[in-house]
Specification:
The protein is built from 11 helices and 8 strands. It is an alpha/beta fold and 232 residues long. It has 2 domains: 2-32 and 109-230, Rossmann fold (3-Layer(aba) Sandwich), CATH 3.40.50.1000; 34-106.
Length: 232
């Protein structure tokens, strides 16, 4: 047993070593992209008023890990767009994608990613994200990291609960450790019967430390920290 970064809840390195799979969230774990997406939500909602833009950002920050489709459905409800008008939601999602595309191709990639892959060459790696699946796959391809994730790169419009249930049924995700940075990531890991490590260095969750202490969640600052712990 060894402690996580800055003395957080204990990380069971042996559990990580013994697991068959690692499951990664993308934003805030693999890519330093949380701030990019927060600003994009504000920009897309701004034509409907500053109050609605601020409300959408607050909703987004309260619900890290939830897909953009659900968040723009929230905005639609706030401004009175009918539930049946999915075209409106889809258009907001398209605007959002245009705002974030350049940022996702230039933002920082987590240090330690390649080192973890070297440390654990036999593990199956999966990405399970609230980001749009087709967008994620293209970004990972262009950034040269897609091949690290032989278990696949999975995202919205399916939610994380649905994706993990499908992977457990179809892709041999029998056990593993989920590396995430939000409450929803933790909840998804619990429902899928996966261990969980909170990666806090880029998280949007301001009270992450309290949340981890209350729920006895091990935490590390970055994938680089995790790689160093596993290499000791």
């Amino acid at each position: 047993m060894t402690t996580g970064s800055k003395g957080g809840i204990v990380v069971d390195v042996n559990r990580i070593r013994d697991s068959s799979s690692l499951v990664f969230d993308c934003d805030g774990v693999i890519l330093n992209s949380n701030a990019i997406k927060t600003q994009a939500f504000h920009q897309v909602a701004l034509p409907f008023g500053v109050d609605h833009a601020d409300s959408l950002v607050a909703h987004h920050l309260r619900n890290g890990g939830i897909s953009r489709f659900e968040k723009f459905r929230y905005l639609a409800d706030q401004i009175g767009v009918p539930q049946s008008d999915q075209i409106w939601v889809n258009r907001r999602c398209e605007e959002f994608a245009r705002y974030v595309s350049e940022g996702l191709l230039s933002c920082e990639i987590a240090d330690g990613l390649a080192e973890l892959r070297t440390l654990f060459p036999s593990k199956r790696w999966f990405v399970v994200s609230g980001g749009k699946e087709s967008e994620l796959r293209e970004v990972f391809r262009q950034r040269g990291i897609a091949d690290l994730f032989e278990g696949g790169i999975h995202g919205s419009p399916a939610d994380k609960h649905t994706i993990l249930a499908r992977l457990k049924a179809e892709s041999g995700l029998l056990d593993g450790v989920f590396l995430g940075d939000s409450r929803f990531d933790h909840e998804a890991a619990i429902r899928a019967n996966l261990d969980f490590v909170f990666v806090h260095g880029w998280t949007d969750l301001k009270d992450w430390k309290t949340y981890c202490l209350q729920n006895q969640i091990p935490a590390v600052e970055s994938l680089g920290d995790l790689a160093r712990l596993c290499n000791e």
